[in-house]
Amino acid sequence: RAKDEGRNTARFYAPDINRASLGELLLENDLRGALERGELSMHYQPKVDAATSRLIGAEALMRWQHPEHGPISPVRFIPLAEESGLIGGLGQWAIHDVCRQQRAWLDAGLPVVPVAVNISAHQFAQQDVPKLVAEALARHRLAPDLLTLELTESLLMRNAGRAVEVLHELRAMQIDVAIDDFGTGYSSLSYLNQFPLQALKIDRAFVCEIGEEGASGKLASAMIAMAHQLDLSVIAEGVETEAQRDYLRAHGCDQFQGFLFGRPQAAEAMGAVLAASRQT
Ligand code: C2E
Ligand code: MG
Ligand code: MG
Ligand code: MG
Fold it and tell me: Where does the EAL domain lie (predicted)?
């Protein structure tokens, strides 16, 4: 502690601490009005069927275009939103914006696919997510199979009791839920079995290893086998190479998401992807 070490040292410590966090503090302050100023948008990344490479879904990913600093990664601003209590508003907006977009695509006659929305830990703890989802679906007149949710492994582990209840509610509403970033937490097989989930997303870290020298895809293939034992469908995220795709396909992975198949893109570009999917 700087204070315990006397006045002189405190003078040196304080500016360092401030400098480290000032940028984030300013950014957090900017985030406060970002939604109202129209700086946030949802982008869409395709998910494809592993066997046919056909489009079968998409993940909605939030983007922030800062007026001075340009695009800010959600890896940076989602944690800020969580700390500052802004996540509730942003998370609610995300669900509504995705439903609004699905309705627009439907009205345009496009062949829509289910879109997954990420739910963060704080949002999950603070909000009645099933209620929010029900309201958004009703407002935009959407069937529940057009919206799915992604909850991270760590979120489920930290809130296990409540998570089981909420997942059962979502199941009753026919909302599919995937466990996201799987393999980065510490859940055991038996633990996972208590959650009524429909899909498991293998974290990019394990997909990355495939085809790398000195590493292997053994963890990924073990996860696929385990997930199938639990009747979960398996999505590999961050698939970038044909070697990764071929290995995962050979080991029975059900769906792919990654730059090899498509980057996250603005709604308009995603609309073109939907339109093109009709031909294939
Ligand atoms: P996530 O849910 O695991 O999303 C997948 C991330 O992997 C996305 O990063 C995506 O752009 C990236 N990705 C997909 N394919 C590839 C690939 O082939 N190579 C590489 N290198 N990356 C790939 P993004 O968009 O930066 O989002 C990062 C994280 O931020 C997300 O991880 C999610 O945890 C969070 N996030 C994004 N949007 C939202 C949101 O609307 N709400 C909440 N609560 N969290 C969000
Ligand atoms: Mg996700
Ligand atoms: Mg993920
Ligand atoms: Mg991830």
Answer: 24-278
